[in-house]
Write a structure and sequence with these properties.
It is built from 18 helices and 25 strands. It is an alpha+beta fold.
Length: 462
């Protein structure tokens, strides 16, 4: 499972060029997208943009960052959910409009992007790429509203789904969040600058202080006079993505006052209460499984030990492995510590099981390393439904929990036992009202209605 994107922007009131700070902010958000990266900056009259395929440190260097002069800038890291992984879909999207040139960076996914794109094509609008972010930019450009901010609101009123967006003009930085607040977005302060970021961990890396989260349905405008905001539309209920807490957000981030690490630690503690087992060690599938594994160990009083080492340099690779190596699957990324697991009863903690293929290979790795028993524990409930709001999940036909019972999944994984965290205790771990979370992937209750076009596809709904 992979997130769609991360966004980061700075308005510097002291006229210093913030492009390098945006670079470091994107570095902290690299976990949210590894396919492409880009930064756009304005010097008050021109907007310049540099973007490319690959990781942040592959796309930028000192020369490219120096060329991005100006006192306001925004950046983006991308993993494709809507649109192919090609340079034309890399962001920010830069487009000329009657309001002036704008740059747009988007995290999320529009569930009605096909209909919106077709409407624009009927009006003679052509597209360079295939992303829904380009659709949003084109809609703003063709709005009939006189005022630019009104054009943004007018555009977003037609958008359905999840979107946390930063827009750059020659003299403004604008942030907006969808009416349900599905994807995260926050505001920080750095000396004489204001910062917008997908997560607080990126504020930390540039030395910015967290101010507050952007509210669901809020538009925030930063210009020479400071920050102003208003609610442009609000859904009946907030519906923040629960998987930000389970997997996507970095554990050192804070979301609406809730520490992600602490939430995952408590998931592990509740998991130990729900699914205890006699064992010699608790280990994690790195990296996202570590906090829950530590919580499980603390509650069960079973020692936590490292059993798998992750190759942190896999990332996005341009040189594809040979077929022989590719068939080895997770061995490219994970290697067991044989002396740590040999002869032991092992509990493996992971955050989720999607298709099940990776989990089965991990169980096999630990068995081959000499473990006597392998017990799998998952710090979230079974993933039963696909996500349409900016997360690349499998179709329902591919989701193992949608097609097999827990007993059937255990047999497929070749584990001695399997236990999932209950939905009730997941919500307790996060300390967030369940009614204010998007739990669609777990319970099928989508906060934004999915178009019939998607519901009718057996590919998605079994």
């Amino acid at each position: 499972m992979k997130e769609a994107c991360g966004v980061f922007g700075i308005y510097n009131f002291s006229q210093d060029s913030p492009a390098k700070s945006v670079y470091y902010g994107l570095f902290a958000l690299q976990h949210r997208g590894q396919e492409s990266a880009g930064i756009a900056a304005s010097n008050g009259s021109d907007i310049k943009c540099h973007k490319g395929m690959g990781l942040v440190n592959q796309v930028f260097n000192e020369v490219s960052l120096r060329a991005l002069a100006g006192n306001l800038a925004l950046g983006h890291v991308r993993y494709s959910t809507t649109g192919m992984s090609i340079l034309e879909n890399a962001q920010p999207i830069v487009i000329d409009t009657r309001y002036g040139t704008i740059a747009l960076a988007h995290n999320g996914n529009l569930i009605n992007s096909v209909a919106l794109r077709n409407d624009l094509k009927d009006k003679g609008i052509s597209f360079v790429g295939t992303s829904d972010s380009e659709v949003i930019a084109a809609m703003i450009a063709t709005s009939k509203k006189e005022n630019f901010e009104d054009a943004i609101v007018d555009t977003l009123a037609h958008c359905r789904g999840a979107f946390s967006i930063i827009i750059l003009t020659k003299d403004k930085l604008i942030a907006v969040r969808d009416p349900s607040g599905i994807r995260p977005l926050c505001i920080g302060k750095l000396d004489n600058a204001l910062v917008i970021s997908s997560e607080t961990c990126a504020l930390d890396i540039v030395g910015a202080q967290f101010v507050r989260d952007v509210s669901n349905g809020e538009i925030v405008v930063i210009d020479k006079d400071g920050l102003r905001s208003k609610t442009w539309e609000r859904a009946e209920r907030e519906a923040f993505c629960v998987f930000e807490f389970i997997y996507f957000a970095r554990p050192d981030s804070v979301i609406s006052g809730r520490n992600v690490y602490e939430a995952r630690f408590h998931m592990g503690k509740y998991l130990a209460k729900e699914h205890p087992v006699e064992a010699d060690m608790v280990m994690a599938v790195p990296e996202s499984g570590v906090p829950a594994a530590m919580g499980y160990a603390a509650e069960s009083k079973i020692p936590y030990e490292e059993g798998l080492i992750k190759n942190r340099y896999i990332g996005r690779t341009f040189i594809q492995p040979s077929q022989e190596i590719r068939d080895l699957g997770v061995r490219l990324k994970l290697n067991p510590i044989r002396d740590a697991v040999r002869g032991k009863k092992v509990i493996i903690i992971d955050d989720s099981i999607i298709r099940g293929t990776t989990s089965r290979q991990i169980v096999r790795l630990i068995r081959e390393a000499g473990a006597r028993e392998v017990h799998m524990r998952i710090s979230s409930p079974p993933n039963l439904n696909p996500c349409f709001y900016g997360i690349d999940t499998a179709t329902k036909a591919e989701l193992i929990a949608a097609n097999l019972s827990v007993s059937g999944i255990r047999k497929y994984l070749e584990a001695d036992s399997l236990g999932y965290l209950s939905l009730k205790n997941l919500i307790k771990s996060i300390s967030w009202p369940g009614k204010n979370l998007c739990l669609a992937c777990l319970n099928g209750q989508y906060p934004v209605k999915i178009p019939e076009r998607l519901q009718s596809l057996k590919l998605f709904f079994k």
